[in-house]
Write a structure and sequence with these properties.
212 residues, 2 domains, 10 helices, 60% helix
């Protein structure tokens, strides 16, 4: 829970650059989560800041129970509604129409996760397929690396980051037969090759081929 509802409201009054549509969930989530965490209110959407009881029940020495309003409950409701309002303001109309009955930030977050999880899984599979099938072809080394790094960044944004050595394997796999001498040299390496080293070796190889 944030230390001040006014502080969290101020922190969350800015909109993200990409409102949620039916096709950009991963990008939208990547923008929204840091803002929620930065404002100290991510607990309202991930369930770690649960709704407190409306009433406090106490028992006296004779075993008689009495109840009184919990002062923490209206504070929670106020901040939860601020977070809910922030999220709703960053949905496009097509998505907003599907969540009109949601009344809490946590319920909205759960609904969106369920709505887009299968889409995200499909997107991850498509990115991995693109990595496997990528070919350098006539691309420059810089363009080829930028494309492959772009796929890796998309996977990272979807929560499926791959290590550099795996990305290096995809990059090497996408080289055609002309690069066989370079691939053989890389295979013979005892130490693990870095992405920067592969980039430099590919650039030098292309320069030599252009010279000859």
């Amino acid at each position: 829970m944030s230390s001040s509802s006014d502080a969290s409201q101020t922190s969350l009054n800015g909109q993200v650059t990409e409102k949620l549509t039916r096709t950009n969930y991963v990008l939208w989530r990547t923008q929204v989560i840091p803002q929620l965490r930065g404002a100290g209110v991510f607990g309202y959407v991930d369930g770690t800041q649960p709704e407190p009881a409306k009433l406090l029940v106490t028992t006296d020495k004779d075993g008689k129970e009495t109840s009184s309003p919990n002062p923490l409950h209206p504070i929670w409701v106020r901040e939860d509604q601020q977070v809910l309002g922030y999220l709703l303001n960053n949905l496009t109309r097509e998505v907003l129409l599907t969540v009109t009955t949601v009344t809490t930030a946590g319920a909205l977050w759960t609904t969106l996760v369920g709505m887009f999880s299968s889409q995200s899984a499909s997107r991850i599979n498509n990115i991995r397929t693109s990595l496997i099938n990528a070919q350098k072809g006539n691309l420059s080394v810089a363009s080829y690396f930028a494309a492959m790094r772009g796929y890796a960044d998309e996977l990272a944004a979807a929560g499926k980051a791959i290590p550099d050595d795996e990305l290096a394997s995809y990059i090497i796999h996408g080289l055609d037969a002309d690069y066989q001498p370079l691939v053989s040299a890389l295979d013979a390496r005892v130490t693990e090759v870095t992405l920067d080293e592969i980039f430099a070796m590919l650039s030098n190889f292309d320069q030599r081929m252009a010279h000859f």
